[in-house]
Amino acid sequence: MMQRPKEKHVIRKQPQARALRLSASSSRPRVRYALAALALAGGALVALSLQPAQAATPAASAAPAAAKLVPAGSEVTFTARQLGVPLEGRFKRFDAQIALDPKQPQTGKVVFAVELGSVAINADTDAELAKNLWFDTAKFPKATFTSTAIKGLGGGRFEATGTLNIKGQAKPLVVPVTLTQAGGLTTATGSFVLKRLDFKIGEGEWSDTSVVANDVQVRFKLQLQGLGPL
User: Fold this and answer.
1) Which of 166, 171, 53, 160 is nearest to 97 (CA)?
2) Which has the closest alpha carbon to 230: 102, 113, 44, 110?
3) How far is residue 126's CA from residue 115's CA, in Å, rounded to a whole number?
4) Lowest CB count within 10 Å: 21, 146, 164, 217, which one?
């Protein structure tokens, strides 16, 4: 009498245990997928928390605004020497594209162009300089300087490194520049020496440096409007 209920009880438990085992095994992939999803979500949250907030990221330096050349207050002059005698000249037409923040000069850019046909010494010399042995203005109408780096030296002094291109000859050049400001205008002044034969200026018989010296002193004063404060 007491054994029959036990048999029935055992028979009932076996299918239940089997059913539980089947249920557990079938849920394992779902558990694994859920755990993987949680891990991915957690990793994403950790990655986002490690990244700096957008507002805290420093903004890239904006390109400085371009300054406007004031021709009436600007000049480009030079001194050459013929048989030891100084020969003064100037260029009447030139242009400058200058984008420079004096407080962050490394972001600046200078492109300067001179019309070689605008040279002014005297009528005879001007006509001679236009010929192919000198400037060859028909083929090379302009001389250009393009900066590749600008460095601040303090006290309104700067150093522009770049390439000077005259008559198809490109040479590296470092130009010292001093900036002063008054009345809402900025004046850039400086000078440098170029070797005329490096640029094939004065070929043939004119390449004799005892007649015309190789060194030519170039000076500039550029008045600018719209440049930021020093």
Assistant:
1) 160
2) 102
3) 13
4) 21
Q: Are 63 and 107 in contact (CB under 8 A)?
A: yes
Q: What pLDDT shows up at residue 61?
A: 58
- 3-state secondary structure at position 159: strand
Q: What is the dihedral of CA 183, 186, 190, 195, to 10 degrees?
A: -140
* Rounded-to-integer distance, Cα 224 and Cα 215, Å: 29
CA-based diameter of the chain, in Å? 143
Burial-class residue 141 by CB neighbours within 10 Å (0-12, 13-18, 19+): middle
96 touches 222 (CB < 8 A): yes
Q: Which two tokens stand for residue 13?
A: 């438990």
Which helix or strand (DSSP H or E) is residue 32 part of? helix 3-50
- Count CB-CB contacts under 10 A for residue 69: 20
The token pair that represents 179 in the structure block: 């900036």
Block residue for tokens 């407080």: 103
pLDDT single digits (tens) 24-68:
444 444 444 433 443 444 444 333 333 444 444 444 556 788 999
